[in-house]
Amino acid sequence: MLASALFFFCALASWFVLRPMRDAVAAGTTPAQLSLLFVGTLVVTLTANPLFWSLVVKFPPRKFIPYAYQLIVASLLVFYVIFRSGGGHDNSATDIWTGRAFFVWTSMFNLFVTSLFWCFMADVFKSEQAKRLFGFIGVGGTLGSVVGSAVTASFTKSIGELNLLLVSCVLLELAVVVVTRFPVAAGADSTAADRARLADDQGRPVGGNLWAGFSNTVKSPYLLGIAMYLVLFTIGSTFLYFEQSAIVGAAYADRASRTVVLARVELAVQVLTITAQIFFTGRIIRWFGLVAALAFLPIVSMLGFGALASIPVFTALAAFVVLRRAGNFALTNPGMEVLFTVVPREDKYKAKSFIETFVYRGGDQLGAWSYAGLTAIGLSLVGISWVAVPLSAAWLGLGVWLARRQAALAG
Question: Does residue 80 sit within a domain?
């Protein structure tokens, strides 16, 4: 559990150092431009999935996870050189196009960083262990998010945005060290057979069909249900992200100011998340079951979008973003990861990765197209917020079904 928390700390700290930089790029674009960036992200993610599956087929987790992370480090170093050689002039043509490429690339790889971690966790821990421990493991990731956001908020102006890329690279390399030295034992309650199985699993490739991630997903009602749950989540998140970009872009004129205020919002999210993870996550899942974890965020979204439709100002937006994102990290995300503990090992890496990267970005794109379409027919931010309310209600019903199905498969 401690090794898992440290692994998650390094992975998420690396990403959250960069997240405000990516979001600052989005805040400086129009809705039409942002929609095109989402298309680019979807295309890049679709291309990356077969490359990842080829690693899964050929190498054991202790090898293909470091390989994937180090490819990401190499890409960040390339961006560092490009930004540096371009002189870093804000709003120059080179800076704008490089920033857009940075948005697309980081939007893709952040999903792989997180998905790889949780694929590994679903493989290491059994269903009952996951329900008990994933909340505590999530604390490591939340601490990493707090540290990453705090570094960006505190040091952007003193050390410069570009040097944050190097900080992110160092943190990813630390995550590589943790996974290569990850302990074989899966917990004090594990049997000798569990430890033998885990040692064998970690020492051999997952193998199987290269395209099993896609084919197994479309054949399984359970996996399709998880995919649809994630699509409904991402549509709501995309609606909220577009509204955030519009409101923050109007309220703050320059990219540095946007980066700082978004980092502060993110810091508030992580502080609330870690409080919930330490004191409430495990208890809520233990007392009320997985259904509570999967139903919480849809209920918050129904209320939050309704409130934003009534009060479309930055204060209301910030409150909704903080509560929704904290609820996702503290409850919904651990609940989603528990869903995968009852599927076959190949699906834990391939189908899970497919759902959490391509399907996730597909949901983003669907949300972006939907937002653009609703805007085109004349709906304002208020009207679009009202549209999100019944979508959240459908999301709630699906979450309840998935929780019940997981319990049946685990039993």
Answer: yes
Per the structure, the complete domain to which residue 326 belongs is given by 2-182+213-410
Please report whether residue 207 resides in a domain.
Answer: no
Listed in sequence order, the residues at least 6 apart from 307 whose beta carbon sits closer than 8 Å to its beta carbon are: 316, 320
pTM over 0.90: no
- Strands annotated E in 309-402: none
Concatenated DSSP letters for 10-65? HHHHHHHHHHHHHHHHHHTS-HHHHHHHHHHHHHHHHHHHHHHHHHHHHS-HHHHH
Give φ, ψ of 205 to 5 degrees: -65, 155
Other residues' Cβ atoms within 10 Å of the Cβ of residue 286: 12
The string of pLDDT tens digits covering residues 28-58 is: 677 677 778 878 888 888 887 777 777 777 7
Give the C-alpha separation, 89 to 86, whole Å: 7
The enclosing domain of 177 has a CATH number of 1.20.1250.20
pLDDT beyond 90 at 344: no
Residue 152: inside a domain? yes
Instruction: Round the CA-based radius of gyration of the chain to a whole number and report it.
Output: 20
The helix-helix angle for 345-354 and 31-58 (nearest 10°) equals 160
What's the CA angle centered on 165, arms 163 and 169, to 5 degrees?
120
Task: Name the residue among 206, 239, 207, 22 with its Cα closest to residue 109.
Answer: 22
Tell me how many domains the chain contains: 1
Burial of 72 (0-12, 13-18, 19+ CB in 10 A): buried
In a domain, 190, yes or no: no
CA distance 94 to 98: 6
Instruction: Supply φ then ψ for residue 339, to 5 degrees.
Output: -55, -35
The type of residue at 176 is V
Helical (H) or strand (E) element with 124? helix 93-124
